[in-house]
Write a structure and sequence with these properties.
The complex is a heterodimer of chains A (502) and B (155). Chain A has 502 residues and is α/β, with parallel strands linked by helices. Helix content of chain A is 42%, strand content 15%. Chain B is elongated. The chains are: A alpha/beta (502), B alpha+beta (155). Chains A and B meet through helix 1, helix 11, strand 12, strand 16 and helix 17 of A and helix 2, helix 4, helix 5 and strand 4 of B.
Chain lengths: 502, 155
């Protein structure tokens, strides 16, 4: 029977992929994959023909009988036909390294993984030794993809040189930023890349145990990764020398902060630890620990396989390699776009993303999750680069780009940032715990027209205190969305004034 | 639709015993108890504390810190609706309001028909929002018609 590839990615399931797979059952050999990340085309199915794969989408279950009758299985049906997937402009423009396999192969087939270049990085690491492996990652220029952008090679070198009876690799898969879904896609669509990356990390720093801390909001990712662990153990990829256990979070955003995550893994409230000591010296259970974001770890196998120079050659400035940028919210072509650093925000939103889904003008773009700044179109020339965003009081975070049209109320978005901080603060430090409550109260006063100018000044002062007085990035970066909303969209904070004057 | 067992001390001891020797076992233990009983009732706290060599206060602190751990058994269905920014940008606030009106409950409430409604900050379905998770199954592109169809299909 002809093979038809149907995503089992949670976002594809959310728009009916399961029903499409059921409609195809009996007519074709249905292979479930991850998603290619072209979510406006999901459910996007691919038919294997003698001339390569032909994609169709977005396919609804009710389309399937007609498509089958018109020659779906030979790729000749014309309705919803997208052609060769790699020629779809959104895919053709990408540089897929970390997501090279996602959406193409059966994510739980270790033999598919090996035939598409998998495990070559781990073999390379073993042949060159731990020190050269750390050196390769260092020379590649890879930086933490969770948001902080710390050089991965330096972190690994610190752990490798640290003294300890046991060492750990911890993968941060607590992807809580709104607008981001890269970790989820890999857990579901290419879990062996994470396993290989962690095995390389363990070999490089001398760790024997790895933990993956996955957020509970990702039930499909958790299930897929647990299955992959069983397969990897049975095949001898994991087990003696290095093993991995997945732990599930419990709905606390702050556990994406590395020290809160370690507390949670140790079985406590997810409260932030003061640094130093750094986790690299004294991390999980007091042992030297390399804690990395999931995308960082999944990027390592290709770096080892293809060499540091190939990865280092991509990107701009001090941001080397590729970044899986996630287009989300009110954007026409919402999806995962992996590209070298340097693409501008305007290209991402207007050109690649096709502008808003609603067809209205873009008003604001939040980059980097709930702690990221709102950028107006006037800043669309900013290149996607750690330093370029920092220079404009923003951050790239985990690569989420959330687009809003001109119906957005930026004062409400500022209020939401503070409200989110109330809900998710771990409570350890005062600026975050109390400041967020005062922040909501102050925005409410501004919106009610009470002493607007004085309260705007107070809100700015509060943001300053939170930014410099908070223990971690939650309280410390919540001022970014608040201040950017105030700076770029001041008119939204003076609405009560105007209404009173009218 | 999930079914839960009534609280039973022996059964709870059995669940907790499955984690003997697991380092940092508190969250896995609490998840396992909630999967069986639907929540972490107060009676569970001293059992977990004794097994993990913690004080009851510490266990209470852990249970109440995390949004996921419930203190009472939820309805027959659990609906998580995303309230975060990417879903807001595509009408998430309106979707949330429609759900609350249709179920006649506020966030964290359980409807007369047995649907427990919880807000959630991001399900990773940000490109197909507004998004929800109904009994663990993802639902995207929520609008009033889709919400009504989804709720009508529940038994």
């Amino acid at each position: 029977m002809t093979r038809v590839f149907v995503p089992a990615d949670a976002a594809a399931l959310a728009v009916g992929a399961e029903e499409v797979a059921a409609a195809l059952a009996g007519h074709a050999d249905v292979v479930r994959t991850g998603s290619r990340g072209l979510f406006w085309l999901e459910p996007m199915i691919e038919v294997e023909t003698p001339h390569g794969r032909i994609a169709y989408g977005p396919v609804e279950a009710s389309d399937v009988p007609g498509l089958l009758a018109d020659g779906l299985l030979t790729g000749t049906a014309q309705h919803l036909r997208l052609g060769v997937p790699e020629t779809i402009p959104f895919l053709a423009r990408q540089t897929r390294l970390t997501f090279a396999r996602c959406g193409i192969a059966d994510p739980l087939s270790l033999s598919d993984y090996r035939t598409t270049g998998g495990m070559a990085g781990l073999e390379k690491a073993r042949s060159i030794g731990p020190a050269a492996t750390v050196e390769t990652v260092l020379r590649s220029g890879l930086r933490g993809r969770g948001g902080a952008g710390f050089p991965t090679g330096i972190k690994w070198k610190t752990v490798a040189e640290a003294k300890g009876d046991r060492k750990f690799i911890v993968c941060n898969a607590d992807e809580g930023d709104s607008g981001t879904y890269a970790d989820r896609m890999l857990l579901e669509g290419d879990p062996f890349s994470l396993i290989e990356g962690m095995a390389i990390a363990g070999f490089a720093v001398g760790a024997t145990q790895g933990y993956v801390y996955t957020r509970s909001e990702y039930p499909h990712g958790i299930a897929a990764f647990d299955k992959a662990l069983v397969i990897a153990r049975a095949a001898g990829v994991l087990g003696e020398g290095f093993d991995i256990e997945q732990r599930v979070g419990a709905g606390a955003y702050v556990c994406g902060e590395e020290t809160a995550l370690l507390e949670s893994l140790e079985g406590r409230r997810g409260q932030v630890r003061a640094k130093p000591p750094l986790p690299a010296h004294k991390g999980l259970f007091g042992c030297p620990t390399a804690i990395n974001n999931l995308v960082t770890l999944a990027s390592v196998p290709a770096i080892l396989r293809d060499g540091a120079a190939a990865y280092q050659a991509i990107g701009m400035g001090r941001s080397r390699g590729t970044m899986p940028i996630q287009l989300a919210g009110n954007v026409r072509f919402a999806g995962l776009f992996e590209a070298g650093f340097g693409v501008t925000l305007g290209e991402l939103v207007n050109d690649i993303g096709g502008g808003t889904l609603s067809g209205r003008p873009v008003r604001a773009v939040q980059v980097g999750g709930p702690l990221g700044a709102y950028f107006p179109p006037a800043l669309f020339d900013t290149p996607f680069d750690y330093e370029a965003f920092a220079a404009k009081d923003g951050l790239i975070g985990h690569g989420g780009v959330v687009v809003f049209d001109d119906t957005v109320d930026m004062a409400q978005q500022a209020r939401f940032a503070m409200e989110f901080c109330i809900a998710e603060s771990c409570g350890k430090c005062t600026p975050c715990r109390i400041g967020s409550v005062r922040g909501v109260e102050t925005v409410d006063k501004i919106l009610a027209g009470t002493d607007v100018d004085a309260n705007l000044a107070l809100l700015r002062d509060l943001c300053h205190t939170m930014k410099f007085g908070s223990l971690c990035a939650l309280g410390g970066f919540i001022p970014y969305p608040v201040l950017s909303a105030m700076n770029f969209f001041p008119e939204d904070f003076h609405r009560a004034h105007r209404l009173a004057a009218e | 639709m999930a079914t839960y067992e009534a609280w039973n001390t022996d059964r709870a001891h059995g669940v907790i015993a499955g984690f003997t020797g697991v380092p940092g076992a508190c969250l896995p233990v609490l998840h396992a108890l909630q999967a069986v009983f639907g929540c972490i009732p107060p009676e569970a706290e001293p059992l977990v504390a004794a097994a993990l060599n913690l004080s009851r206060a510490e266990v209470h602190g852990i249970v109440t810190f995390y949004h996921d751990f419930r203190r009472s058994v939820p309805g027959r269905h659990v609906l998580l609706v995303c309230r975060a920014e990417a879903c807001q940008a595509t009408g998430g606030d309106a979707a949330g309001a429609h759900v609350r009106a249709a179920l006649a409950v506020d966030w964290h409430g359980t409807s007369a028909g047995g649907v427990t409604l919880e807000p959630v900050f991001c399900l990773g379905l940000c490109a197909t929002g507004p998004a929800a998770l109904l009994d663990g199954q993802p639902v995207g592109r929520l609008n009033p018609a889709r919400i009504d169809r989804m709720l009508e299909a529940l038994t």
